[in-house]
Specification:
Layout: E1 2-5, H1 9-21, E2 29-31, E3 36-38, H2 41-54, E4 57-74, E5 77-94, E6 101-110, H3 116-135, H4 145-148, H5 174-190, H6 196-212, H7 226-235, H8 237-240
Antiparallel strand pairs: 1-6, 2-3, 4-5, 5-6
Helix pairs in contact: 2-3, 5-7
């Protein structure tokens, strides 16, 4: 996700007023896998809207298309190949009408393919994730600390070896941390352990997304591109998950 900030003094004052007034939403839905709760989109909007209005701010969430063209050479001929990418764009404005100033902007990549209900589920998740991020509110319990500190991309037996010779834990590589975040979010969405079909679907989503960006392995991704690609994959998780979960087997993945 990309976050851009353009502040004038009045806008900065309004944003500060909003930050002081807004409260964390009620975590109104239970995640039985982690024995924790998280806030639905409705619960987030319930606390955000009044605080925005009181501070003289407004918020929009829209789907925007980004088109690009690439020159492809086929023998003696060259042709242009077009590609469309879509983002859920969340903006916070200060002021009204033509004098409104964009205070914050956040882009979340989404994929508008699949069944209507799948697209709807993906967009609902993207809206909630973007809303809590741009508003600085806590949308779920902090229950992933221990999980996130463990290396990933190894077999289950190998993943137990998390210490170096001096007794300290081996920190995960950026690619391993990305995969851990993706699988952790998959478990949250499925609210239990991933079944075999879900596991294969998440792995296929990872591979397809990497290839769309021109990479064959997570090791190939430049560190600065990892957050955007991670966000893109997480934004597409919900539609590919069905009913039940088990930790994805990463043995076949080059992490």
């Amino acid at each position: 996700m990309k976050k851009e900030t353009v502040l004038t003094n009045p806008s900065a004052t309004a944003l500060t007023k909003f930050r002081d007034a807004v409260e964390d939403p009620k975590h109104d839905k239970k995640n039985p896998h982690f024995d924790s709760k998280y806030a639905t989109l409705g619960a987030c909007l319930k606390v955000v809207r009044p605080a925005l209005t009181a501070a003289g701010l407004d918020l929009t969430q829209t789907i925007e298309r980004e088109s690009s063209e690439t020159a492809l050479t086929e023998g003696p001929k060259t042709r242009l190949a077009s590609e469309d990418r879509y983002h859920l764009v969340t903006r916070i404005f200060h002021g009204e009408g033509e004098t409104a100033v964009e205070v914050l902007k956040l882009e979340y990549p989404v994929r508008l393919t699949g069944k209507p209900q799948e697209i709807g589920s993906q967009l609902t998740y993207a809206r909630r994730y973007s809303l809590t991020t741009i508003c600085g509110i806590v949308g779920d319990d902090d229950d992933d600390g221990n999980l996130a500190n463990q290396p990933v991309g190894e077999t289950r037996s190998a993943s137990k070896k998390t210490s170096t010779g001096n007794g300290k834990k081996t920190p995960p590589s950026p690619a391993q941390a990305m995969w851990r975040a993706i699988t952790s979010e998959a478990k949250k969405l499925a609210e239990r352990d991933l079944n075999d079909e879900q596991r294969k679907a998440v792995e296929a989503l990872l591979r397809d997304t990497l290839r769309e960006h021109g990479y064959e392995s997570t090791k190939d991704i430049p560190v600065e591109e990892i957050p955007a690609i991670q966000g893109e994959i997480i934004g597409q998780l919900e539609p590919v998950l069905m009913d039940s979960v088990d930790e994805p087997d990463t043995e076949d993945l080059e992490l």
